Structures are given as structure tokens and as C-alpha cells.
Amino acid sequence: MEVELASLSASVRMRLAGRVRSSKDDIKKLRRDHQKATQGSERDQLLNRGGSHVVDFEVSSQDQRSRLINGTERLQEGSRRLEDARRLAMETETIGIATLDDLSRQREQILRTRDTLSTADTWITKSQGALRGMQRRMIQNKVLTFGIIIMLIIIIIAIIWLKWF
């Protein structure tokens, strides 16, 4: 029980620690009761108490029998509690495994999403560079076009000036 309890997570361990302690205490109490019953009946037999051997044997036998039945019931109750604790630990372990699987899948999905966003960010950066280059060329073309227009206007004015004056 202690080994299984140590292998569980802290929250589950805290929850089941009380049950384990209770079961251990029950087992110790049953052992003490059994030991007392065994020692008491042996002492009574050695001291030959009660006068008649037949009556003492029957009373002692019934007393031992009731103690044995009581001890057996306590052991069964302790076993049932241990089985419940084991079943609860197994259910908790199953839930924990399922949760870890879900978290693992979500982690993989987050990593894939991050990679996709990183790729998109790279393409956006490249697109921004291309757009900046296009904008520069557009401004250069406009300046060149205005320069050519101004030159043509100056040439036209010069030709008109020369013909009339």
C-alpha cells in the first residue's frame, strides 16, 4: 500500500493517506486482539480456571470463536477498504493518463500552430520587403515622369519662344 501510495501524485496521495493509515491501524488492532485472545486462552488453560475443564473449554471455545468471528469481520472490512482504495487509485490513474494524453495532443497542436504562424510571419516579412521595393520604384517612376513632363514643357516653351521672338 505504501509503495503504491508513494507512486501517486501529491493530491491523490494526500487524499488516500488517511485511508491507508486507518487500514494499517485496523490491522494492528486486529493483530493485538488476536494476540490477546491467543495469550488469554493459553493462560486460562494453563491456570485451569473455572473448575470444570469441559465448561471452561466450551466457554473458552465460544469466546475464542466470537473473537475470531469479530477479527475476521474486521479483517474483511479492512480488506474491503483496501480494495476500495486500490480501485479509487486505479480510477484516478486512468483519469490521469487520459488527462496526460489530452495535454500531449493539445501540446502538439499548439506546436503545429506556432510553426504555422512562424511560417506565415516569415512570408509576411518577405511580402513587406517586396512591397517596400515596389513603393520605392513607384516613387522613382513618378519623379522620373514628372521630370520628363517638366523637360517637355520647357522644350515646348523654348521652341515657342524661339519661333516668335
How does this structure look, described?
With 165 residues, the protein is an all-alpha fold. It contains three helices and no strands. Helix 2 (10-47) runs antiparallel to helix 3. The model is unreliable at 50-55 (pLDDT under 50).
Outline:
The protein is an all-alpha fold and 165 residues long.
Architecture blueprint of SSEs:
Layout: H1 2-6, H2 10-47, H3 53-164
Helix pairs in contact: 2-3
Shape estimate: rod-shaped
What level of helicity do the residues show?
over 70%
Main beta sheet:
none
Q: Output mean pLDDT.
A: 86
- Report Rg: 47 Å
Number of strands: 0
Uncertain runs with pLDDT below 50, 5 residues or more? 50-55
Taken as a percent bin, the fraction of beta residues is: under 5%
Straight-line distance between termini:
119 Å
Could you name the key traits of this structure?
single chain; 165 residues; mainly alpha; 3 helices
